[in-house]
Amino acid sequence: MAQDATSRTRTEADSLGSLEIPADAYWGIHTARALENFPIAKRPISVYSDFVRALAMVKQASARANLEIGVLSAQKADLIDRAAQLVIDGKYHDQFVVGVIQGGAGTSTNMNVNEVITNIALELAGREKGDYAFLAPIDDTNRSQSTNDVYPTAIKIGLSLQLRSLLEELDLLRKSFLAKAVEFHDVLKVGRTQLQDAVPMTLGQEFHGFATTLGEDLQRLTENASLLTEINMGATAIGTGITTHPGYAPAVLHHLCEISGLELSTATDLVEATSDTGSFMSFSSSLKRSAIKLSKVCNDLRLLSSGPQAGLGEINLPARAAGSSIMPGKVNPIIPEVVNQVAFSVAGADLTVTMAAEAGQLQLNAFEPVIAHSIFQSITWMRQGMWTLRVNCIDGITANRERLGAMVGSSVGVVTALTPFIGYAASAALAKTALLTGHNIADLVVEAGLMTREDVTKQLSPARLSGLESVTSAIPIVQAAENVVVDERA
């Protein structure tokens, strides 16, 4: 009876002994040990595809550099190059199986990459997987390298690749808010400070403010991304470059820039660069800033849509799901809520990065795996959160124009616009009367003889109340504040 293909194995050995490896697996013994040692996150590194692609780019660039400086044969370099390109193109990602959280400063990840690319290359050469006498994961695919320069370099390249898509999504979200700003440009509403009624503004101005704050983060994230362009390839174990040819570092830099499309540079002090994680802290911090600001916007959206009857009810968010298993008709702001939760996670991840960076010792930071996982998760969740916020929420927001108009009409905040003309004392007295009686501010001003109906109407126009049209001249303040009596009838 033929043995099932999935049950067949091959034997691989390392310095600790030998293990049986599934015959169809492209990974080998070092990966197998990692699977035994780190059943922690239950999430393989393949969940971050740009990270896997970046690791393959490093291996491809190294193969080209090693060929260039004459430490790897043309045949071997070509096989590694072609195998790495398949991974860069998105193939074999399911073979990158080690967990995102691991001990060893990323060694298990580097071993996983070495083994997969080597076994792909062996197949390209018509050889069996595991035929390491022909092409070896460490002696050939890892030639001139150490986990300690491969791993942080790949993190930086992977994050740079992911940042491109994050910035694209962030800009689309910004434009979505801008579109709503244009749509709501003439919708007058009551502004609020400290959750209390303030002066009028337009709903368009409010949404324009949301767009502007997101635009600022486009700049900050781009600025911090430049910190990810300094790499330490050629440093090997601790930055001294042991086991490398003097020409390797410039050669691998050239090829890595060409392959990745990034403007990378080699650190001037490779010992410092191998132990330093400051760039990851700065980048994580910029992600947290963006996430927290976005979360604040989502808080505002939930407040503005609250009710809809007993809350503010100024805007309507698209209904995305039933809001209750017991209350018919209830709809919750689930999209802003999920983005809030993303922000909470990003903030927590930033603290994790901070603690991991602080915990590094001497010539290496052993905690780069949790740094990598934390930042990759943050940037992935933020991108997806921005997408769902834009597509499933912002684009479908509508304004409750009648409700907004009614609130502005009865708001005492509009009297602020009249203080240059009737004085603060008179304005305060009229505001109190309006609050007590519910009377219209404009009517009270005219009845008090402080302004004509025409002037009041002009100054309380939507354009002037919202500041879109500036006051070009002032009516002399009527010195009749002492004659304004507060009507305390409810």
From TrEMBL:
Signal peptide start-end: none
UniProt GO BP: aspartate metabolic process; tricarboxylic acid cycle
Superkingdom, taxonomy of origin: Bacteria
GO cellular component: cytosol
PROSITE patterns tied to this protein: FUMARATE_LYASES
A GO term for molecular function: aspartate ammonia-lyase activity
Fumarase C C-terminal domain mapped to chain residues: 415-465
Segments forming domain Fumarate lyase N-terminal: 18-348
NCBIfam families assigned to the protein according to its UniProt record, in alphabetical order: PRK12273.1 (NF008909)
The protein's name in its UniProt record: Aspartate ammonia-lyase
Organism: Microbacterium protaetiae
